[in-house]
Description:
The structure holds two protein chains of two kinds. An eight-stranded antiparallel sheet of chain A has the order 5-4-3-2-1-8-7-6. Residues 235-253, 596-601 and 740-744 of chain A have low confidence and may be disordered. By secondary structure, chain A is an alpha+beta fold. Chain A is built from 25 helices and 16 strands. In chain A, a hairpin with a 6-residue loop joins strand 15 (392-395) and strand 16 (402-405). The radius of gyration of chain A is 29 Å and the shape is globular. By secondary structure, chain B is α+β, with helices and mostly antiparallel strands. A three-stranded antiparallel sheet of chain B has the order 3-7-8, with no helix packed on it. In chain B, strands 5-4-9 form a three-stranded antiparallel sheet, with no helix packed on it. Chain B has a two-stranded parallel sheet with strand order 1-12. In chain B, a hairpin with a 2-residue loop joins strand 10 and strand 11. The radius of gyration of chain B is 27 Å and the shape is globular. At the A-B interface, helix 10, strand 14, helix 14, helix 15 and helix 17 of A face helix 1, helix 3, helix 14 and helix 17 of B.
Amino acid sequence: MNKMKKILPYLSFGISVFIIILLMLxxxxxxxxxxxxxxEYIYNSPYVIALWAIMALSSLLYLLVRGxxxxxxxxxxxxxxxxxxxxxxVTHLSGKQGRVHLRQGDTAIKEYQCSDGSIEKFPFSxxxxxxxxxxxxxxxxxxxxxxxxxxxxxxxxxxxxxVSINHIYRYRNYRLYxxxxxxxxxxxxxxxxYDPYGIxxxxxxxxxxxxxxxxxxxxxxxxxxxxxxxxxxxxxxxLVLWVITGVGQLNAAEAPKTLSHDVAEAWGNIHxxxxxxxxxxxxxxxxxxxxLYGKATYKGFTAEQVLAGxxxxxxxxxxxxxxxxxxxxxxxxxxxxxxxxxxxxxxSVEGYKLDAALxxxxxxxxxxxxxxxxxxxxxxxxxxxGAIMKIYPYRNPSSNNVEWYSMTDDLPRDMPHEQxxxxxxxxxxxxxxxxxxxxxATIEFLEKIRRYQLKVGSDxxxxxxxxxxxxxxxxxxxxxxxxxxxxxxxxxxxxIFCRALMSRKxxxxxxxxxxxxxxxxxxxxxTLHIAMRGxxxxxxxxxxxYETMFFMAWCCLLLSLxxxxxxxxxxxxxxxxxxxxxxxxxxxxxxxxxxxLMPVLQSPLLSLHVVVIMIAYALLAFIMLNGVxxxxxxxxxxxxQEEIEYLQCVSRIMLYPAIFLLAIGVFVGAVWANISxxxxxxxxxxxxxxxxxxxxxxxLLHTQSLPALRNPILxxxxxxxxxxxxxITYFGVNFILGGMHSYA
Amino acid sequence: xxxxxLLSSFMVCxxxxxxxxxxxxxxxxxxxxxxxxxxxxxGGELGTTHLATYNALEQxxxxxxxxxxxxxxxNGEALFEKVFMTxxxxxxxxxxxxxxxxxxxxxxxxYGHGKRIEAGxxxxxxxxxGCLLVVYTPDDDKYVSWLAGMPQSHAVEPFxxxxxxxQVMVQWIDYVDEWGNKFPDGETYELQYPQVTMPExxxxxxxxxxxxxxxxxxxxxxxxxxxxxxxxxAISDEDLKAEYAKQERDGxxxxxxxxxxxxxxxxxxxxSNSLQGDGTPYPRRYTYALSRGPLQDAAGANAxxxxxxxxxxxxxxHYLDAAGTYAKYSSKDPEVQAGFDDYISKVDPDKKHxxxxxxxxxxxxxxxxxxKELDVEMDDEDYVDLMVWHRGLAVPAARNVNDEDFxxxxxxxxxxxxxxxxxxSWTTGSDEIRDPAKFFxxxxxxxxxxxxxxxxxxxxxxxxxxxESDIRTGWCRTTPLWGRGLHQxxxxxxxxxxxxxxxxxxxxxxIMWHGNARSDAxxxxxxxxxxxxxxxxxxxxxxxxx
Lengths: 744, 546
């Protein structure tokens, strides 16, 4: 028994190390020799699967031998990983992925081709009733591909369903995804995924994991609580602040033409029906600019000026490199060097450069990037063509409802002449005045449009105060500077904290006051911001990623202010968390819902996936910095053992949430991928590296089994080196290894 | 101390808030109000629209607004945009028995020029494929008689499509010009032209035993935009003649004037219509081949009938091949015979046309197909509305007119001679409505554009460019350039699709296709080649902005 107790940890952890090395190798092999080789020789190799199994079994034995099963939560936590691994095995053995090609009018299909080339039978027959392309309004660019399919079950029942980019069709545990279409528009390719048992087992694992993590934090007497109550934790108090905000402005060298500031303001004051509500045109302008460029201003132009520029001075603006492109694959398609493309970069004499990539929508390979870029291109088209400009209300006489039209829409046949004329021509007159350069007349015409809106849509218009508040809201959305401010505060306070540690001095009260005041002001700002958003939208502002992140930032601020007396780290850690959450909120804001595509990128699961992982990385960065501080302390002051231990203590406290969040983040990503692509794990390099990171860091939690890591200095050195895996996951994969995550 | 702290925090906030406002703009009224140059108003005061949106080519002229012809305009718009049906009653009925497209919009995406078609099968179900198959005999440049001049590739059962378009293949062939597709300063461009193959087996009458008498070739010809055609109709006959006479006197162009139409200061051939009209001659204005005179009996008036085979009061017969092969072979086809009774009982349920019911089945089919007394499918009111709309489409205003590069481009366009054929402007005459078909008889029925200074950039005269795989006869009317720069925006096409078969994917390609050694534009192209890149780009911008 004792012998076993000695061998088992070596076996479990030893094989883990071996697997980590194999996985690292695999990502390199994939880069050099292609995914097929990596899959064949490592990921799907029976030997490697056997390794995983031995590791799992020996870990289980070791847990039992050590009596961990008596500590329910910890045991469940470990068991959840066993379930996840078991699920993977089941998927590997019984899951099927394939593809079918359906043609309109062809006889029903009863089998599909698997990715390995074999042919599998459906327990039903499948035929395509109709395939159609949905276009971006006002353009001829496909927005969605819709297959109407018919399933005739062997039991004689008949089912009709829709498969589109927006919609997966499920039948008897078969999931059908839209994956491509024939050039003549009369046939479609569907991806088929069938894996009922693997997914079930895996999901049980995920649920167990989540539950045990939650329970863990509520469990008195856990290692985490013991650390919090550690005597060293009560000794030091800290703090901070020094902030410089240099908001540099881009050089407006080759400024494109647009409306003057005043005319643009009048332009922004028009109402528009956008995102299923009536709002100032300014709101669309802001979303448009942020979506295209990533920021709400461009070369010193306000968002309204940008929108007006694209609408009235299209020829100038199509040359502006202001369309932010994510993903090296898309940059290559477009043939651009930097981050930004101009509209002209999207086309060549060969046609639309993204066409080939869009048509070839196999499951992976940066598909999301291509779609995102395509959406941006079409957003510009929808604006420039006028399709998005639903600024004309019309009261339908039969229903008495107010409908909104753009000047390019097919207008109702019963619309009175004067109105028809106004809708068709009023912006044309505005354009003429703009061409003449008569600002006063232009503003007057714009004001006429506004008066028309108020007259026709009187009862559906937002109140004046709501309109004004929305404009204030638009003008005071500072997620980015605020995020930067708090990241800076967090980092700087962290260093000051360390210096205080080294010199064993307390920080002067004034600095503490400044930090507190800044946080209070930020809290007031966030409160107002959230309240205005709630007022303007008319619902509780927690409906999407952006809003939840803002709320989370608000909570973090409040908590750090309240907890600072109990836990001195609250202020710097709170600042960093606020910074990160705001940063993530901004990422969400960079893809506001203007068009209705990209369900893959829109899912709330994605926001969660990103947020959770970002916070985990932030915490891991802290742990690394703690390590650096400890090493510096060790070699600069002779007598710093206590501080080094304290830092280890802090690191270990942060380690729990960090690793748990990382695990949750990775598995939320898996759930998201399963919903979007029909498989929860695809051995994408970023996935693999996240797993590697998770495995590497998990060693730090097992100090009872790995006594060497109990040594503070070794712990810190390990934490610094382990952070390399985070860097590779976060940066290295994008730049070196590629894969479908290259947009994140 | 506390106060200072509070103040400094406040400053941070102020700085944050104010960074949005640092961009200072001149106040209202500081900017000088520009007098817009007359070439901004491309369609004159009565025919210009100002917005460059997706529907820029679909807007009504001021004349429509002034006359209050909205209802007609709106109805004409619907007739143009919506699909015709094979039903025998209801809206837009009467499609067939054979037809080319189901709607006008199929060929005129966004009311503009057709889009470039992709290599592969010729597919007329594609919205935006504005190409017709031009099938002719190369020895005499005449259309073949065994297909309609605009060949149909669709039919209503039991009839068979005259051409099986799935057998018609389009390929794009790379072409290298005498300069190796390169400007002296090293900038390169690419050229492609379409090659069409139509095997004999694609022709229905051949499958029924007809022998094609001699070799034929197939070319593509794309539609051009509809907007502004009313304004071109308003140019007076005298001014048109004066342009021909001036060009003949100048003698500047190597290929001179097409002597089939004009010689020695006089018209040789004019357009006339003796079938519906009284044969009065009118100068030719429309189509690449200048096959048409005044707008009221020109391409649009014809197309609404012959593209769809929807009859109207003055055209109660079917558009079929000139030699009558289709009617002859269809009436002998057992499959057509088998379905004819069913078909004809829907077309003529009350048996008002005895000839379609009496005699052998072959005689009955033949009588139906060649009948000159078909029922009217589009009533006169709808036809008038269509023509109100047709004549009522405005031209988008020129863009970027005050830009330096626009002005440089404009100057160079004139200086190197482009403007000789792409004549920038005309002033319309009194614009009396003339209709060779005598359907329209007075000025009140249609919108008119008297005395307008318009900027179509065409001389309305034919010239020769000697392009590789050239247009039938080699003579091609100078295409108006107005509004062409909006093609991509209005049709969603990724390329600019210029020239008669959409072979040019951008302006540079279009210009360089003018460069053949024997081309009328050779002089200008040589000059163009030797301009600096900046100057060439300025011309491109100008051409895209008018």
